[in-house]
Amino acid sequence: MGDETSWLLPFIIVMLVGYFALTTWLGKKGKAHSGSMKGFAIAKGKVNPAVVGMSFGASYASANLFLGVPGWAYTYGLSTLWYTIGCFGVTWLGLLLFTKTFWRYGQKNGGSLTIPEWLGNRYNSKALRVLVALLVLFNIYYIVGQNVGLATMFETVIGIPYLWGIGIGVIITIIYVSLGGAFAQIVSDGIQGATMAVVSLLLFISLLWTIGGGWNVFGTLQSELRAIDPALVAPLSAGGPFYSGFAILSIQWLLFSFVLLPHLMNKVLTVEKEEDLRTFTLSAGISLFTLSIFSVFAGLAARVILPGLASADSAIPAYIMEAFPVAIVALLVMGVISAILSTTDSLYLGITNSIGNDLFKVLAVPVLYKNKKLTAQELDAKVLTASKVSLVFIGLVSLYMSVSRPESLALLTSFGTSAIISGIIAPISLGYFWKHANKSGAIASVVSGAGCYMFLTGTGAIEHVFQAMFFSSILGFTSMITVSLLAESLKKREKPSQETVRGW
C-alpha cells in the first residue's frame, strides 16, 4: 500500500469518532426505554424483529469468526470449514428448534428477562436461578476474547498499542450500553451486522485478485495450499481442533448448543408477538450465513500470500492491508471492529443483567432491605442501579484479564461458552418436552455438567475444550434424568405415608 498507509490512521479515527457518536446517540435514544429493568434488559417489543434477528447474527459473529477462526484457517487449512459450515447450518437448526418453545415459556410468570430467571421460573427454584447466574459469569472469558481481538486489530493495522486498543473498546461499549440498555445494543448490533455482511462479501470477492484463477478460484486456492503443505487441504488436521471425526462431532455439538447462551437467547425474549418469531428466525438465518461462511476464505488466502505471520489471529488484518486500497481498508477495519463490539455489548448486557436481576435481587435485596417494604417500582429501580454499577465493574475486570494475550483467540472464547453450555443445555432442552423434568434434576445437571467441564479442562484430563464440553453435557443429561426420576419416586413414596398419618 506504500505511502497510502499514512492516510489510514486519520480515516479510521474519523470513522471511530463517527461510530462513537452514533452509538452515543442510540444510547440516548434508548434511554427512554431503559428506565425499568425490563426495558434495560430486553427492550421487549421496542425493536423490529428483523433488526433483532440481524442483531442475533452480529452478536454471534464476534472476534472469533472474523479473527480467531480465520486464524485457524491460516494454521490448519481447509479442515476449518467444518467449523464455519456448522456456524450457519447447525446453529440455525438449533435456533429453529429452540425458539418458539423458549419464547412461550418466557412469557409465563410475568415474563423472564434472563436465562437464569427463565430456568428459575420453569423449575420454580431460586437456587437454580442463582447457580445459573453464577455460571453466566464465565462469559467474562468471551469478553476478554473480544478485547484481545479488538486490540489485535488496532495493533496490526494502525499501530495503536495493545493496551490502548483494549481500553478504547471497553470505554465505548460501557458508555452506550449503560445509557441505552438493550435498545441501544440491539439497534447498534443490527447496523453493525449490515456492515459486517458487506465486509464478509468483500473479503470473499477479493480472492479473485489475491489468489486469481477466475471461476476456478477455489481450485487455484486449493492448489496453492497443497503446494505449501498437503496437510492444509486434508479434511482432518493433526494437532489442531479438527484432528478426528469425534473432535468435529464435538464442535458441531457446541455450535448446535451455542444458541442457548444467555447473550443470544435473550434476543428471543425481546420479540413481543409469537407471529414475529418467523421474521426473527429468518433474519437471523440470513445474518448467520453471511457472517459465518465468507471470512474464513480470507484466512486461507492469507496463508498463501502472507506466509510466516507471527500471530495467526492477525491473518485477517494483515490480509486486508495487503489486498485493498486504503479507503477500503478503513471500511473493512471498521467492519471487523463492528463484529467485535457487537458481541461485546451483548455479553456485557447479559452478564450485568444476571448480576442485577438474578444475584442482587434474589440474594442481596432480602438481606439489605429486609425491614423495608419496597414497592415494585422501588425494587425495580434498585435492581436496575445494581446492573448498571456492575457493568463498570465487569468492564474493569475484563480489562485486567485482557492484559496477557492468549495463544488462540478462538480457544479462549470457546472456554467460557463451553462451561455455560455444559451446565444449562440439559435443563433447558429437557424442560421443553420431558414431563418428569424437575428442579432437583435441573440443579444436579448444572452442578455436574459445569463441574465436570471445569475439572476436565482444569486438570488437563481432556485438553480439547470441545470434547470436554461434549462429555460434560452428556453427564449433565444423565444427571438430570437420574436425579429427576429419583426425586419423583421419593415424592410419590412420601405422599402415601402423609395420607396414612392424616388418616390415623
Automatic annotation (TrEMBL):
Subcellular location, in the record's words? Cell membrane
Gene3D superfamilies attached here? Sodium/glucose cotransporter
Instruction: Report one GO cellular component.
Output: plasma membrane
Reaction it catalyzes: L-proline(in) + Na(+)(in) = L-proline(out) + Na(+)(out)
Q: Which UniProt keywords apply?
A: Cell membrane, Ion transport, Membrane, Sodium, Sodium transport, Symport, Transmembrane, Transmembrane helix, Transport
One term of GO molecular function: symporter activity
Write down the membrane topology: Multi-pass membrane protein
Its GO biological process annotations read: sodium ion transport
The lineage's top-level taxon is: Bacteria
Residues that span the membrane, as ranges: 6-26, 47-69, 81-98, 127-144, 164-184, 196-218, 238-261, 282-306, 318-341, 383-403, 409-434, 441-462, 468-487
Similarity field: Belongs to the sodium:solute symporter (SSF) (TC 2.A.21) family.
User: What name is this protein filed under?
Assistant: Sodium:solute symporter family protein
